[in-house]
What we know:
By secondary structure, this protein is an alpha/beta fold. The protein has helices at residues 2-17, 40-56, 78-83, 116-130, 175-183, 196-201, 220-223, 247-251, 255-263, 267-290, 300-323, 328-342, and strands at 27-33, 61-66, 89-93, 138-145, 150-153, 169-172, 187-190, 207-210, 226-230, 240-246, 294-298.
Amino acid sequence: MLRQFLIAGLSGAALCLTGAASFAADVTLKLHQMLPPQATIPSKVLQPWAEKIQADSGGRIAVELYPAMQLGGKPSDLVDQVKDGVVDLTWTLFGYTPGRFPKSEAFELPFMVTTAEATSVAFQEYADKHLKDELAEYHVLAVHTHGPGLIHTIASKPVQKLEDMQGLKLRGTSKVVNQMLEAMGASAVGMPVTAVPESLSKSVIDGSVVPWEVTPAIKIAELAPNHTGFSGSTGLYTGTFVFAMNKDSYDALPDDLKKIIDDNSGKELARLFGKAMDEGDVRGKDIADKAGNTTYTLDEAETARWKAAGEAVTKAWIAEMDGKGLDGTTLYNDALALIQANSK
C-alpha cells in the first residue's frame, strides 16, 4: 500500500513538472508552437490562457505547453499538425504556409497596421466575416496581428531613404511582405523568425523586418543595431497569426467544457494577443535604446515615397484575388475599414 502511494505521488509530481495542470484532468490538450516559453506571446498569453482554462474548468481540462517545436517538425508544419490531430492546439503565423490562406493576406499589405490591439480586433472581425471557408478545417480560437513592423539592419547598412533598400538581403515574414520588400528594392529572403540570429551572424542576410516585440528573443539589438520606422499612424506591415484547435479535439468535449473554450475565445482573446504585442513593442524598443542603437523615423515626405512603392503590391494582390474568383477590392476595403474603425 505504501509503495502504491509513493508511486502515485511521484507520478503526480512528474505530471506537474512536465506542465500538466492536474493529474485528475478529464481532458489533456497539447499546445505546440515555435517560440521559446519566455517570448511575449507564450509567456503573456498562452501560459495565462492555459491556466485560465484549467481554473475555469475546475481542473477538468489540462493544457500541456510545448514551446520551440519540442514535438518536432518545422514552424510551417504547425497548421497541419493541428489539423491532422498530431497536436490539439497551435499558435502560428499564417505566412508560414504561403498561399494557403489567401484572404488573410489583406492585413499584411503595406501601411495597413496601426496598433497591434486595434488591428488584431479588426482582424478577428474580418476573419468572422471572410475567413470561415479558409479555416473550415480548424476550430479557431482567435486570430491576431503584431504591431507595426520595422526594418532592422546591420551596422554598415542603415536604411534612411528608399534608395538604401537596393540590394539589401532582408528576411521577410510572408509572401506578401516579401513582395513588398522586393518592390522597395530589397532582396527578400524567406525563413522562420527563429533562424534570424544565425543568419545575421553569418551574413546570410543584412537585416530583417520584425516588430519591436520580437527583437529581444532574436538578438536584433545586438546583431542589427539600425532600426527604421515611419511617420504617420500606420506602420510598414504586420504579420497575421492564428490560435487554433483540432476540430475533433473540440468536438469530443462535453458541452460544458466546450463552453469554457468558447468563453475564452474570440474578439476579447484577439484583443489580449494585441495588447501583449503592443506592450512587447515598448519593451523591445527600450532594450534597443539602452543598447545605444540608432532608430530612424522617416519623415512624412520620405514615408510617402515608400507608400507609393507599396501601392503596386496592393494593386497586384487585389488582381491576384480577383483571378482566384475572390473580390479583392472588397476584401481590401473591408480590412482597411475595420482597422480604421477599431483605431479611433
